[in-house]
Specification:
5-stranded parallel β-sheet, 8-stranded mixed β-sheet, binds uridine-5'-diphosphate-xylopyranose, 2 domains, Rossmann fold
């Protein structure tokens, strides 16, 4: 290491890898970042960032001199001792994580090159041990990422905690990783590899559990007349529970929760343990996406021939990511009922088009609502709260609004002539 600068290698420049490479460069470290996709590397060399992540393109531009993009593993191995593995681990047909890209990286590492592999990719507990069985001389550190899409740079720069898992023989590499993260100030959890791997899966599974729990409470609130947003407020003030991840809605999605809950369930199952609670968490989420169809039917009767407008398609705001988005299930279910589906998303429409055949996608919310029998707010993009709803009401065939994220002011919408139906808010707008 030269002063407080450490040459960092990043393998895989998808979303996690690019954020990691850019943020280490911002901290002053020279970074060599590898991807096997030539066009991606060339675009990044030109400063073009294909991912919608607020602030990322600007931060990369500011640090362009410190980040080298390459397709050559030899270049990375020559330059850096610490190699952050950021390749993706998507689910296979069996639901287990696909570790083929991780294995491909490991195979390229020389046995006695003095490198340390720092695993950022989400892998099942036990992966690090298996890698070290194959390569006993490779230093190995598990350092899972906890970045949220849409606030990844802030999350990287201000971590709640930094998990650094290492077993005997990898202590120096773990110390080096700790030093890299030290300026960021998050509490360091120094532990063994298997526990570090499990911290990541368990954290995401727990967050998903919180959401499925509040969604079930919301469904009960609809029967009892309580308002789930009030219930969540009252629960969240108990510091043992905490206020975050208690927003009821039409279900969680994204690149991590679906994949990681299933991976943990399968991991447990493969060891002979049936993780019942997690199975329920996953089932509740699948049903939650479909409940909107029942709500629409309650208000409109059969949906065949009805025009239903979806506001928002991305799995959450501030991203164009469509992975596991509730909109995909909802649109397909509505089409299955014979409805005509029209959708507007300010950022994700281009990415969504191929995934949603038969869904019309005009260029504005107002056009999407033209002649609609109902609007369903799917993603809480801030601009939807700024719309002139009184004017939009006139454009719709039926002024029915299903607020899938409890995002809009139900009482104001009701005053503007809408029938408003949120999630778990029986009395709001009734
Ligand atoms: C998540 C984890 O938060 C992050 O730590 C991990 O590294 C990757 O997975 P992300 O997928 O970016 O991050 O999204 P997040 O903000 O956690 O939201 C996940 C989903 O849960 C979204 O669909 C969101 O709409 C939903 N959600 C979140 C709720 O329905 N209610 C809530 O209260 C919070």
């Amino acid at each position: 290491m030269e002063g407080s600068r450490e040459q960092v290698g990043v393998v895989g420049v998808g979303w996690v890898g690019l954020v990691t490479a850019t943020c280490f460069a911002e901290l002053g470290h020279p970074v060599v970042a590898l991807d096997i996709v030539e066009e991606k590397v060339e675009a990044l060399r030109r400063g073009e960032v294909a991912i919608h992540e607020p602030g990322l393109a600007d931060l990369l531009r500011r640090n362009a001199e410190r980040v080298t993009f390459t397709t050559s593993m030899d270049e990375v191995l020559d330059a850096a001792r610490l190699l952050f593995c950021c390749v993706d681990t998507p689910p296979t047909y069996s639901g287990d994580a696909d570790l083929s890209r991780v294995r491909a990286v490991v195979e390229r590492l020389p046995d006695h090159g003095g490198h340390a592999l720092v695993m950022k990719s989400t892998v099942p507990s036990g992966t690090g041990a298996a890698i070290r069985r194959d390569k006993p001389d490779l230093a190995y550190v598990s350092c899972p990422e906890f970045l949220k899409e849409g606030s990844a740079i802030k999350d990287f720069m201000h971590p709640d905690r930094v998990v650094v898992g290492a077993d005997a023989g990898s202590e120096n590499a773990a110390d080096a990783v700790e030093r890299l993260y030290a300026p960021l100030g998050g509490e360091v959890v120094r532990t063994d590899v298997a526990s570090a791997e499990m911290i990541k899966l368990a954290s995401n599974a727990f967050l998903a559990t919180k959401i499925s729990f509040i969604n079930e409470i919301a469904n009960v609130c609809e029967q009892t007349g309580a308002d789930v947003t009030e219930v969540a407020r009252g629960m969240g003030l108990d510091e043992r529970i905490g206020a975050s991840f208690l927003k009821a809605g039409i279900g969680w999605g994204g690149s991590c929760f679906g994949k990681d809950t299933i991976a943990l369930k399968k991991l447990a199952g493969n060891t002979g343990y049936h993780f019942q609670l997690l199975s329920a968490v996953i089932d509740v989420n699948e049903l939650q996406k479909r409940r909107v169809v029942a709500k629409l039917t309650n208000h409109l009767g059969p949906l065949a021939g009805r025009r239903i407008a979806l506001l928002g398609l991305a799995f959450k705001p501030d991203t164009d990511d469509m992975r596991d988005a509730a909109s995909l299930v909802l649109a397909a279910r509505l089409q299955g009922e014979g409805a005509q589906v029209v959708a507007f998303d300010p950022v994700a429409a281009d990415r969504a088009r191929d995934l949603l055949p038969g869904v019309e996608m005009p260029a504005s919310a107002a056009e999407a609502l033209e002649g609609a029998d109902a609007a369903v707010l799917v993603t809480e993009w801030p601009e939807f709260a700024e719309l002139d709803w009184a004017e939009l009401r006139e454009r719709m065939a039926t002024p029915l609004l299903i607020d899938g994220r409890n995002f809009l002011d139900g009482n104001a919408l009701r005053a503007a002539g809408f029938t408003y139906d949120g999630i778990g808010r029986a009395k709001v707008g009734a």
